[in-house]
Amino acid sequence: MEVKKTHYDVLGLEPFSEASAIRKKYRELALLHHPDKSQSSEEFLPIQDSYTYLRDHKEEYDRDLRNDMLAAYSVEQEADEIDDYDITVEDSIQFVTFECTQCCSEISKETNPSSLYNCDICSKFYIIK
Ligand SMILES: [Zn+2]
Question: PANTHER family, alphabetically (predicted)?
Answer without folding.
Answer: DNAJ HOMOLOG SUBFAMILY B MEMBER 9
